Amino acid sequence: MFKVVRGNPTPEELAAAIAVMQARAAAASAGTAPGTGPVSQWSDPVRVVPRAAPAPGPRSWATSYWPS
Known about the structure:
Radius of gyration: 24 Å
Number of helices: 3
Distance between the termini: 56 Å
Shape: elongated
Number of strands: 0
């Protein structure tokens, strides 16, 4: 059941909100909801930037590229 707690939605707005909730419920029951799958290490930002930027200094440009 759905209940409008605040406001006065038009029938079109209410239908759109119900359609979104039904789609999310269907995706969750099928296991395709966002955030339900395994997290890939490939897309992890830590893999790209594993350490902090080098401190300013005379040779900091040389250490900015090479991994530690």
